Amino acid sequence: MTEPVPDLLAPSLRRRMACWLYEGVLLFGVLFIAAYLFGTLSQTRNALDNRHALQGFLFVVFGIYFVWLWSKGQTLAMKTWHIRIVDRHGQPLSQARALLRYVLCWLWFVPSLAAIAPFKLSAPESTVIVIGWAAVWMVLSRFHPQRQFLHDALAGTRLISAAKPTAVAA
Questions:
Q1: Which residues, listed in sequence order, are joined to residue 157 by a DSSP beta bridge?
Q2: On the CB side of 11, how many CA atoms lie within 13 Å of its CA?
Q3: Pick from 116, 150, 149, 151: nearest CA to 130
Q4: Are 33 and 61 in contact (CB under 8 A)?
Q5: Could you tell me the pTM of the whole model?
């Protein structure tokens, strides 16, 4: 296995987290449309009916969204924050690698949610645990040689700074 390309600089943690938050805002729209479509097609009358089927459907919809856009190099939020995703050699992602990254990205949430599940914690306590785990996850990137998140290292992907578009003089 060859070494990663060293001249591809990772964006700052602050920029990656800003992109992450913006992605969450954009995903709200995807979630709204997908949940409306699911509810309409399944004739769900109560939000608690078909809850697990809806969660599975949204997992698949989000997977399609991310795998498709990551294999093209950027999501809309990544374009806004001038961040690209490549493999460890600086090449565009295959759909298989993008799918692996999507599955591994759930490491941001699954461990903390699994820790919460057996206990009857209040919403603020649960929030502290989830945000605390995300903070640990973020800080761990400081110890990676290329400043990548653990899921990127495991998936063989890298977030890099993309060149800002230059203005064309008329």
A1: 87
A2: 24
A3: 116
A4: no
A5: 0.83
- pLDDT tens for residues 131-148? 998 888 888 888 888 889
Long-range residue pairs from 40-45, CB within 8 A, at least 24 positions apart, any chain: none
Detail the DSSP E strand segments found in the chain. Answer: 83-87, 157-161
Q: Encode pLDDT of 105-120 as tens digits.
A: 998 888 888 888 888 8
Rounded distance, CA 169 to CA 165, Å? 13
Instruction: Classify 107 as helix, strand or coil.
Output: helix
3-state DSSP call for residue 72? coil
For residue 42 the two structure tokens come to: 């399944």
**Gap between the Cα atoms of 36 and 26, Å rounded:** 16
Nearest to 36 by CA among 65, 52, 28: 28
Q: Which two tokens stand for residue 158?
A: 């890298």
**With contact defined as beta carbons under 8 Å apart, do 137 and 149 qualify?**
yes
CA distance 84 to 92: 9
Could you give the 3-state DSSP secondary structure of residue 133? Answer: helix
Helix residue spans in the chain (DSSP H):
13-42, 51-71, 76-80, 95-105, 110-116, 123-140, 150-155
